[in-house]
TrEMBL record:
<dbReference type="GO" id="GO:0006749">
    <property type="term" value="P:glutathione metabolic process"/>
</dbReference>
<protein>
    <submittedName>
        <fullName>5-oxoprolinase (ATP-hydrolyzing)</fullName>
        <ecNumber>3.5.2.9</ecNumber>
    </submittedName>
</protein>
<dbReference type="InterPro" id="IPR003692">
    <property type="entry name" value="Hydantoinase_B"/>
</dbReference>
<dbReference type="InterPro" id="IPR045079">
    <property type="entry name" value="Oxoprolinase-like"/>
</dbReference>
<dbReference type="GO" id="GO:0017168">
    <property type="term" value="F:5-oxoprolinase (ATP-hydrolyzing) activity"/>
</dbReference>
<dbReference type="GO" id="GO:0005829">
    <property type="term" value="C:cytosol"/>
</dbReference>
<feature type="domain" description="Hydantoinase B/oxoprolinase">
    <location>
        <begin position="15"/>
        <end position="545"/>
    </location>
</feature>
<keyword id="KW-0378">Hydrolase</keyword>
<feature type="compositionally biased region" description="Gly residues">
    <location>
        <begin position="537"/>
        <end position="546"/>
    </location>
</feature>
<feature type="region of interest" description="Disordered">
    <location>
        <begin position="496"/>
        <end position="546"/>
    </location>
</feature>
<dbReference type="Pfam" id="PF02538">
    <property type="entry name" value="Hydantoinase_B"/>
</dbReference>
Length: 546
């Protein structure tokens, strides 16, 4: 720790015990925000599946604490706060951020990630000073666009995917801008749910302000702000210490996306990870240009996947904050698949390309970890090992399923198998990678939508064999009881999740309607009585079976 940091901490009265208390309190604020949002939301996608995230930021837009929510949300939220802070700073002093303001946005090219994910950002003040920001992001199951659910497989431009909301004030000085709220809700097929979910997000942000003010009153605002800085420094120290264990050099990996909804051909993704001292650079040179379909990624989503891959290497006790990701540099080509520009369609980039990026970066980092382990005195079997244990590949897709009709939209991401590892078998029927949501209980699904679940079970045949086998995927079959529109955005239907150390790959997934095979990404009408079946991929096995 540098002397200046220690002096600042001492001047603020931040002893180690107080720092520990405040660090836990900040994480607790983020978790409480998430709990309030889930318990107050109207839509099953948030109240049942918990497809939402919450985080706390300092006044410069650095994330200091997050809830254990959805990685693809959390790693990209910094961009939302940055854009809001810049918009507010560009206004006249009397129009700048003030107490009780709440900004709303979903524009993937101005702080968002894809249109269904709506973000609310609130500046937090204490005694007239902006001391931080609270942010919540939640997946709204319909934000307009060409098909119910706002996740059409056949979109070719962002404009077809739903209502685009640039950063605007939804609440000003504590007063709801009802015209803005009405405009948003009028563009959704389920306006009452949108209204309720947005108010739940705003309530979660407001709670963060209350809790942060309580901390400032109890410990002093300077002490709390010093804790912000120290929590970030701690995350950076732990992260750099881990990266420094890896041998300097470049490590490459390649993979592919299975079509983009327009052309059902593989799309190349290339990664080079360069380790230099305690820093690492992820370079996507050689990756495909942006494509016609909607698997393109805004750069913030690409960075989010890289942050996730770095976080996987770290011990569980390391906090996830902007300091943790300070060693990371991401290099992308503007206009490429991983740095798409307006008006590219991006709805599947957030949910599917992010998964492939995470898997590919982890494959490159895995090579670096293997090299570090082999170079240890005594080799891989020597003594206590400070290096991470990486599993075989998990299902690597969110298996996005959207069914909607007159006045209703159902959205779900379906779990699958995780990869086995040296520590044991991979879990079955879980989400892996960039998502972390629950399933929709069958009782809730059948109560809220004109659908009936006819099959929902694990498929043990999908698990990759190994000394420690991969986890099993699952099968869900749903009969629609009214005319509807179907959209599926999936991957790993041709290229299986790979095993490790001699383990077998997991089985690929499968989509069909009434037994007719569907491509990985497609939209089509459904007649009443149609049965949609999704079988999700299994995880790769670890170690030679025997």
């Amino acid at each position: 720790m540098d002397d200046r940091a220690g002096e600042n901490r001492q001047a603020a009265g931040l002893d180690p015990v107080t720092l520990s208390v405040l660090s836990s309190a900040l994480a607790g604020i983020a978790e409480e925000m998430g709990t309030l949002l889930v318990r107050s939301a109207y839509s099953s996608n948030i109240k049942e599946r918990r497809d939402c995230s919450a985080a706390l930021f300092d006044a410069t837009g650095r994330m200091v604490a997050q809830a254990a929510h959805v990685p693809v949300h959390l790693g990209a939220l910094y961009e939302s706060v940055r854009v809001v802070a810049e918009r507010a700073a560009a206004r006249s002093p009397e129009a700048a951020d003030g107490p009780g303001d709440v900004w709303v946005l979903n524009d993937p090219f101005a702080g968002g990630n894809h249109l269904p994910d709506v973000t609310l950002v609130s500046p937090l003040d204490f005694e007239g000073e902006i001391v931080g920001y609270a942010a919540t992001r939640a997946h709204h199951s319909d934000m307009g666009g060409m098909r119910p659910g706002s996740m059409p497989a056949d979109s070719r431009e962002i404009f077809a995917e739903g209502l685009i909301i640039p950063p605007v004030r939804l609440v000003c000085a504590g007063v709801w801008q009802e015209d803005i709220l009405d405009l948003i809700c009028a563009n959704s097929r389920t306006p009452d749910l949108r209204r309720g979910d947005l108010r739940a997000q705003a309530a979660a942000n407001r709670l963060a302000g209350v809790r942060l003010a309580e901390l400032a009153e109890r410990h002093g605002v300077r002490t709390v702000l010093a804790a912000f800085d120290e929590v970030l420094r701690y995350g950076e120290r732990r992260s750099r210490a881990l990266v420094a264990l890896l041998p300097d050099g470049s490590y490459e990996a390649a993979s592919e996306l299975e079509g983009d909804g327009a052309d059902d051909v593989d799309i190349p993704l290339r990664v080079r990870v360069t380790i230099a001292g305690d820093g690492l650079t992820v370079d996507f040179a050689g990756t495909s240009p942006a494509v016609r379909g909607n698997v393109n990624c805004p750069r913030a989503v690409t960075r989010s996947a890289c942050c996730f891959a770095l976080r996987v290497l770290l011990p569980d006790d390391v906090p996830a904050n902007d300091g943790t990701y300070a060693p990371l540099t991401v290099v992308t080509e503007p206009g490429s698949l991983v740095d798409a520009r307006r008006p590219s369609a991006v709805v599947a980039g957030n949910v599917e390309t992010s998964q492939r990026i995470a898997d590919t970066v982890l494959a490159a980092l895995g090579a670096a970890v293997d090299a570090a382990r082999a170079a240890r005195p005594g080799g891989p079997a020597a003594g206590a090992d400070p290096l991470p244990v990486l599993p075989a590949q998990g299902q690597g897709t969110m298996n996005n399923l959207v069914i909607g009709g007159d006045g209703w939209t159902y959205y779900e991401t379906l779990a699958g198998g995780a990869g086995g590892s040296a520590r044991g078998p991979g879990p079955s029927g879980v989400h892996v990678g960039m998502t972390n949501t629950l399933n929709t209980p069958i009782e809730a699904l059948e109560l809220e939508y004109p659908m009936r679940v006819e099959r929902y079970e694990l498929d043990e045949t999908t698990a990759g064999a190994g000394r420690h086998p991969g986890g099993a995927g699952l099968v869900r079959s749903i009969r629609v009881l009214a005319p509807a529109t179907l959209s599926v955005l999936t991957d790993r239907r041709r290229h299986a999740p790979q095993g490790a150390e001699g383990g077998a790959p997991g089985a690929v997934g499968h989509n069909d309607v009434d037994g007719d095979l569907l491509p990985p990404k497609t939209s089509r009408p459904l007649t009443a009585g149609s049965v949609v079946t999704i079988r999700t991929p299994g995880g790769g096995g670890w170690g030679t079976p025997g």
